[in-house]
Amino acid sequence: MLTAETGAFMAKRALITGITGQDGSYLAEFLLEKGYEVHGIKRRASSLNTQRIDHIYQDPHVSNPQLHLHYGDLTDSSNLTRIISEVRPDEVYNLGAQSHVAVSFESPEYTADVDANGTLRLLEAIRFLGLEKQTKFYQASTSELYGLVQETPQTETTPFHPRSPYAVAKMYAYWITVNYREAYGMYACNGILFNHESPRRGETFVTRKITRGLANIAQGLEDCLYMGNIDALRDWGHAKDYVRMQWMMLQQDEPDDFVIATGVQYSVRQFIIWSAAELGITLRFEGTGVEERAIVDGIQGDNAPGVKPGDVVLKIDPKYFRPAEVETLLGSPIKAKEKLGWVPQITTQEICAEMVANDLKVARRHALLKEHGLDLPISLENG
Ligand code: NDP
Ligand code: GDR
């Protein structure tokens, strides 16, 4: 971007809420590579919570940083307004959220405040500051809006039927984004993203819980993985592919809403089988309903010294069933392909392999330390 006065090059400025999360970290990397000045909002926590962005952190004391972190929270309007007025971003990516569906049943009011009202607070801050004609806004909408699905595959016109406090809050966020576009002419878009995963995925989402849990079991650090509805069907893509699309959506002439998906669906059970296979473990499932379990049938290679044939490595725990489940999701990426030329590049099975490889590396390190009497505690809390 050239400035009118000096003709000098000015980097575009982006503000990312949720920069410490999975998508925020990949998006920050992506935008920095594109030459953006990136600002991110991080929450105050009693322990450091910047692990996913530590590798791109730039020390303001020794460099001219292109990455800036601001303390803030989506529940705090004055904080959001101050940050936006200081940064005056060209693009705002609202990725911050209480993003766990099961947790939203336990903390419904907080989820609504962050995910629904938080979106309103950001939009209103942009408008209040008179930036509604210059700041573009991306809202992290979700396939959870479809919930009890009305048609398959789901497209931009499929009716919504949210099935959790999270999804209901995100439905408000979806419509308030559309409303600010229609009412104030804001460049505001919804990306209706289907599940997307990576080695940076939070440990309590199903894919990461599986890859991390089975890697730990393979290395003898854990005995058994406890799961909920393993017959749920999801359309899983890679977070790296999906953040590219988030940026592409803000580079169009006109704002619009897009489904981002792979168009292919697998079961949680299939993801378990793939993950085990990556570790050289063949599983057989026995029993039905809450009695179902996965048993080691065979082992190949040397990735799984911690298990032997006959070991029960997975059981069902009804604690992980949801009060209202989303059984099946399958998205149609046709509009994204036709209008933006976006196609996902990484398949679900490749994602699974990358995640297992990453979690196996970590588990091996822990196992090695344990072997030498340096038993580092690993968190077995897995949501
Ligand atoms: P994560 O859970 O990994 O990251 C969420 C981010 O939001 C974290 O940085 C978290 O901070 C931050 N956050 C949470 N609460 C607040 C708050 N009160 N104020 C400010 N920031 C907050 O999610 P993902 O990266 O996976 O997802 C990004 C967005 O996309 C979310 O809005 C999610 O709902 C949505 N989405 C995700 C999909 C997916 O499959 N990943 C699919 C569709 C939509 P901290 O690190 O401190 O916890
Ligand atoms: P989801 O993702 O609810 O789709 O939301 P999650 O990975 O949590 O669950 C996917 C499916 O797996 C089933 N499941 C389990 N899930 C978890 N977390 N733990 C288990 O033990 C378990 N056993 C089975 C679930 O019931 C569900 O059917 C994610 C989040 O990233 C949201 O923020 C985002 O909006 C949607 O994806 C699209």
UniProtKB/TrEMBL annotation:
Q: Which UniProt keywords apply?
A: Lyase, NADP, Nodulation
Tell me the InterPro entries matching this sequence: GDP_Man_deHydtase, NAD(P)-bd_dom, NAD(P)-bd_dom_sf
> EC number(s) in its UniProt entry?
4.2.1.47
**Is NADP a UniProt keyword of this protein?**
yes
Q: Could you tell me which SUPFAM superfamilies the record lists for this protein? A: NAD(P)-binding Rossmann-fold domains
Q: Which GO molecular-function terms appear in the entry?
A: GDP-mannose 4,6-dehydratase activity; NADP+ binding
Q: Which residues form the NAD(P)-binding domain?
A: 15-355
List required co-factors: NADP(+)
Function, as annotated, reads: Catalyzes the conversion of GDP-D-mannose to GDP-4-dehydro-6-deoxy-D-mannose.
Q: Which NCBIfam families match?
A: gmd
Q: What is the recorded name of this protein?
A: GDP-mannose 4,6-dehydratase
Source species of the chain: Sulfitobacter marinus
